[in-house]
Amino acid sequence: MELDASELGTKEYWENSYTREIQNYKNNGDVGEIWFDEGSQQRIVDWILKQEAVDKQSARVIDLGCGNGMFLIALANEQFTQLTGVDYSPKAIKFATCIAKDQSLDIKYDVADLTQSEPPSLGTYHIVHDKGTYDAVSLSENPKEMRTNYLKTVVQLLHDENSLFIITSCNWTRDELLVSFEEFFTEHCTIPTPTFKFGGKVGTVVTSMVFKKRPTN
């Protein structure tokens, strides 16, 4: 199943959006809106903090489609030191860089398109985070090819088979992500998210999952 293409899957939409966000920030200090599920960022941060194997000083973390960079700012405030954010929108990177600078935080930001057939050279990381970027890719004009390129890029970003790919989606269920990711990743766990009950069935507004890359033979 494919989602219908949307302006949310275009670079032009995000460039225009972050142009407005930058102006709002300059005018009143507003860091901008959270795309969906305001509580998911803190849930992910809390989950990371509970992982004994994750060392705040040595763990390299990259946020894919970082937007205004608030996820990385939350980690920086928890004393994580090796933080990188990437986005294909130069305006998003400008915005995130400005916010981090104003808060005297040392976070690295780069413009990078993760959907190209040739993955960008960004190094490797112990934690790769995605909130909504896979969703946006899925809303593009050529979603199947774009998603495949994106997932191949994620594989290369993961430092080793113990590295974690954390993804939060508002468009795809756990079962759908398992099917889409099975070629590249194995499920590590599902991070609990708020549920709702409708017609006697229980569902979730968003899906948050953690994957590891498949071992190479």
TrEMBL record:
<keyword id="KW-0949">S-adenosyl-L-methionine</keyword>
<dbReference type="InterPro" id="IPR025714">
    <property type="entry name" value="Methyltranfer_dom"/>
</dbReference>
<protein>
    <recommendedName>
        <fullName>Protein-lysine N-methyltransferase KR093_007897</fullName>
        <ecNumber>2.1.1.-</ecNumber>
    </recommendedName>
</protein>
<dbReference type="InterPro" id="IPR029063">
    <property type="entry name" value="SAM-dependent_MTases_sf"/>
</dbReference>
<comment type="function">
    <text>S-adenosyl-L-methionine-dependent protein-lysine N-methyltransferase that methylates elongation factor 1-alpha.</text>
</comment>
<keyword id="KW-0808">Transferase</keyword>
<dbReference type="GO" id="GO:0032259">
    <property type="term" value="P:methylation"/>
</dbReference>
<comment type="similarity">
    <text>Belongs to the class I-like SAM-binding methyltransferase superfamily. EFM4 family.</text>
</comment>
<dbReference type="GO" id="GO:0016279">
    <property type="term" value="F:protein-lysine N-methyltransferase activity"/>
</dbReference>
<keyword id="KW-0963">Cytoplasm</keyword>
<feature type="domain" description="Methyltransferase">
    <location>
        <begin position="56"/>
        <end position="183"/>
    </location>
</feature>
<dbReference type="InterPro" id="IPR026635">
    <property type="entry name" value="Efm4/METTL10"/>
</dbReference>
<dbReference type="GO" id="GO:0005737">
    <property type="term" value="C:cytoplasm"/>
</dbReference>
<keyword id="KW-0489">Methyltransferase</keyword>
<dbReference type="Pfam" id="PF13847">
    <property type="entry name" value="Methyltransf_31"/>
</dbReference>
